[in-house]
Specification:
Blueprint lengths: L1 E7 L6 H8 L5 E7 L5 H8 L2 E5 L5 H14 L4 E4 L11 H10 L4 E5 L10 H18 L11 E4 H6 L9 H11 L4 E5 L13 H19 L1 H30 L4 H30 L5
Parallel strand pairs: 1-2, 1-4, 2-3, 5-7
Antiparallel strand pairs: 4-6, 5-6
Helix pairs in contact: 1-2, 5-7, 5-8, 8-9, 9-10
Length: 291
């Protein structure tokens, strides 16, 4: 069974067309109404979707978690996800389905930037590319659009991926799980409509939040580089400052309190970071399946 999954929050102006168009390409359309205060749920039902409702608005990631759970519990073979704000074109669902089957991959991502023809606002494009670069480093992948919500998942991927992030950073978390589980991945170019500002999130706070969570996942995936290298650098700097202090004290009988304080602070901070790196590295190896 093939299903299309749409996370939606106050999307009554788009949801009907999305559901009806998606039903032309899949067996079922599942809408997760994430605590909408408008008529999203009723319109989606009338259009032919199965609606799962959250009592309160919990976030994009929470809706994605619910949709993954539905797919697993109902033995779904292929799951397509697309955003509920009208930016994704359901007519392009066959592009993802064909790539999934023809190339025998586990996940297909529809990218706005693969052919560099996206008409996204400049600030959005730059922000997404920064987040994508960080996500690629954290997940050891090479994707062009880490924040795309237009994706196709095989049954193997549905069973393997268990998202936990309830916010917008769930897209990055899923990439990390794709990498950790050794799932195969492909990207295809898609078109995205930016006819109106459909986002309910402040772009700056949204971008910073996603980037912060992406950095969190980098620290989990690469603790030795993220904490260990700065830790060693601080230890070396502390030793150098300590040497300057001792040289001045022993040869000139001069006390450089600044060098002494800097040496102690840098050495202790470096030691803390280095120990943290070792601990996180050990923990990451023990619980790698979770992340």
């Amino acid at each position: 069974m093939k299903i299309a999954c749409i996370p939606a929050y106050n999307e009554e102006s788009h949801i009907e067309d999305l559901v009806k168009l998606a039903l032309n390409h899949v067996d079922q359309v599942i809408v997760c109404d994430d605590g909408s205060t408008d008529d999203t749920a009723n319109i989606a039902k009338k259009a032919g979707a199965i609606v799962i409702s959250h009592k309160t608005n919990r976030g994009y990631g929470a809706a994605i978690i619910t949709l993954f759970d539905y797919a697993r519990n109902n033995n779904v073979q292929i799951m397509i996800t697309l955003d509920g704000d009208g930016q994704h074109d359901p007519k392009q669902i066959p592009l993802l389905l064909n790539t999934l089957s023809d190339h025998n991959v586990d996940v297909v991502i529809g990218s706005r930037f693969l052919n560099d023809s996206a008409e996204a606002p400049g600030y959005r494009k730059r922000g997404i590319k920064i987040i994508t670069s960080a996500a690629n480093y954290g997940a050891d992948l090479k994707v062009s659009d880490s924040q795309s919500g237009f994706r196709a998942y095989s049954k193997n991927a549905i069973d393997a991926i268990h998202p936990t992030e309830e916010g917008m950073s769930v897209s990055t978390e899923i990439l990390l799980k794709i990498s950790n589980k050794g799932l195969s991945l492909a990207e295809i170019p898609i078109t995205v409509s930016y006819g109106e500002n459909t986002s309910v999130h402040n772009p700056v706070s949204h971008g910073l939040s996603v980037l912060a969570n992406t950095i969190k996942y980098i620290s989990i995936k690469h603790p030795l580089q993220f904490y260990g290298i700065p830790g060693i650098a601080l230890i070396v700097a502390g030793i150098i400052l300590g040497g300057i202090f001792l040289d001045a004290y022993l040869n000139q009988q001069t006390v450089f309190y600044g060098s002494l304080l800097g040496s102690v602070v840098m050495f202790l901070l470096g030691a803390i970071l280095s120990v943290t790196a070792v601990i996180l590295f050990s923990m990451a190896n023990l619980i790698r399946d979770r992340y």
